[in-house]
Design goal:
Number of domains: 1
CATH architecture: 2-Layer Sandwich
Oligomer: single chain
Distance between the termini: 16 Å
Number of helices: 3
Strand order of the largest sheet: 2-3-1-4
CATH class: Alpha Beta
Helix content: 25-40%
Shape: globular
Structural class: alpha+beta
Order of helices and strands: EHEEHHE
Strand content: 25-35%
Amino acid sequence: MENLVIVSFPAKAETLNSLKEALKSALPDTRAFDGCISVDTYIEQSTNTIHLIEDWKTLEHQQKYLEWRVQTGLLEMLDPLLDGGAANLKVTLCGPKNSDI
């Protein structure tokens, strides 16, 4: 893994399936975006949260991707599906693996 990014989407209980479908449609473009190495998905059932575990060549690539997603309206589209709206979406930029610890 080059640069780890974790994105968490907390769904409303009644919209989890709709969020799954929305991400299923969106993730092929994510995986094809310049600098994206991989995106894996996990669902934390107890909180209805979908976590994306992403690997990027650089964090700058991921930043450009996120800007593109904002510009193209994906966050606006997901807003009603998320518990607390898009403001509750959490992006954790971990960066490269640290082997010194």
